[in-house]
Amino acid sequence: MPFQHVLVAYDGSAQAQSALDRAADLVRTTPGARLTIAHVYQIPNFVVGEAIVVAPVRMELEELSDSERLLEEAKARTPGLPNTASALLQGDPAQALLRYADDQDADLIVIGSRGFGTLKELFLGSVSHYVVQHAEIPVLVIKAPHE
């Protein structure tokens, strides 16, 4: 059974670019299939003493602008591919992707093996690992060519 709605996680890393290329190939070879390119951004909070300080609005706007630019770059990598959409999500990357996949009836998640959050992954665990462990649909994990 071919996949009809492919959701690809994109953060601009080499692994995410490879994942996007593979997801686009899958959609190209499946009549009627659609692709959604998702980017998840997080607004950082800072801990000062015992208080949590919310990031300034300027920082939030910059993050939003950078995220929108990243999605435009991703869409530019799939020229001529019909049925392509993008989604800008906020929050924990793994949980936001899983929630979006469920809400939008995706039937495949394509994700890079590693993204830009290497230090964060060291302490919190890999986004791709979490998605694989918790997704209720198939997940295709893509390594960059040099891995």
Automatic annotation (TrEMBL):
Is Mitochondrion a UniProt keyword of this protein?
Answer: no
SUPFAM superfamilies per UniProt = Adenine nucleotide alpha hydrolases-like (SSF52402)
The record's listing under InterPro entries reads: Rossmann-like_a/b/a_fold, Universal_stress_UspA, UspA
Record keywords, A-Z? Cytoplasm
Specify the UspA domain's residue ranges. Answer: 3-143
Is NADP set as a keyword in this record? no
Record's subcellular location = Cytoplasm
Q: Name one GO cellular component term.
A: cytoplasm
Protein family per UniProt = Belongs to the universal stress protein A family.
PANTHER family linked: STRESS RESPONSE PROTEIN NHAX (PTHR46268), USPA DOMAIN PROTEIN (PTHR46268:SF25)
- In its UniProt entry, what is this protein called? Universal stress protein
